[in-house]
Amino acid sequence: MIELRIRLLQKQEEIPYQLLLLADPSKKNIDTYILGADIYIAEKEEKIIACYVLKAVNSNTIEIKNIAVDPANQGKGIGKILLNNACETAKKNGFKNIIIGTGNSSIGQLYLYQKAGFSIINTVKDFFIDNYDEPIFENGIQCKDMIVLSKTLEP
Ligand code: ACO
């Protein structure tokens, strides 16, 4: 059983860029969306090993802008725990829907999000070509389009 403590990062604490960059290779983009967003961190034995970022889209919908687990702790169910925690946090804060966007090439992430109850609602064509300086390749596929998934938060 993993002993995880998930909590909101305080303003005076250091931003966990090393983790955030695992999910989003552009520091420039990260710096844009973390303004006004909430960063949640997961600690194991007082070490930060994972995080997620929540940002309101409007009064009903909130977005998971970034979710990352440090490589040594991936594949142990922490991503699933973080997704559930993000949904619970969003629900507690009165949101009705939660959305998450990922690349067309992020096969494992698309599997994880759909398994957690998210459904594809939209595709933003060429998002990763238009917004990133360097081409991104994953699983032998170029990451071009953003796939947006949504989950309704049951009251
Ligand atoms: N490939 C295949 N399957 C995967 C992958 C993958 N890359 N990642 C997770 N899964 C599957 C697991 O096999 C597991 O399946 P199961 O429930 O059938 O056993 C399920 O998804 C849950 O896996 P976890 O162990 O909970 O996932 P993990 O702790 O590794 O966290 C995460 C997943 C956050 C994607 C992590 O691998 C990571 O940090 N990756 C790098 C950063 C990243 O890509 N973040 C997401 C970008 S999109 C965004 O941030 C909005």
Layout of SSEs?
Layout: E1 5-8, H1 17-23, H2 27-33, E2 38-44, E3 47-56, E4 61-69, H3 78-92, E5 97-103, H4 107-115, E6 119-124, H5 127-131, E7 137-138, E8 141-142, E9 146-152
Parallel strand pairs: 4-5
Antiparallel strand pairs: 1-2, 2-3, 3-4, 5-9, 6-9, 7-8
Bound molecules: acetyl coenzyme *A (ACO).
In short:
The protein has 155 residues and is an alpha+beta fold. It contains 5 helices and 9 strands, in the order E-H-H-E-E-E-H-E-H-E-H-E-E-E.
| Largest beta-sheet characterization | 7 strands, mixed
Helix amount: 25-40%
Morphology call: globular
Report the sheet-strand fraction.
25-35%
Could you tell me how far the N terminus lies from the C terminus, measured between alpha carbons in angstroms? 28 Å
Give the number of helices: 5
Indicate the structural class: alpha+beta
Task: List all distinct small molecules, including ions and cofactors, that are bound in this structure.
Answer: acetyl coenzyme *A
Provide the residue-averaged pLDDT. Answer: 96
- Report strand order across the widest sheet: 1-2-3-4-5-9-6
| SSE succession | EHHEEEHEHEHEEE
Count of extended strands: 9
Taking Cα atoms only, what radius of gyration do you get, to the nearest Å? Answer: 15 Å
Low-confidence stretches: none
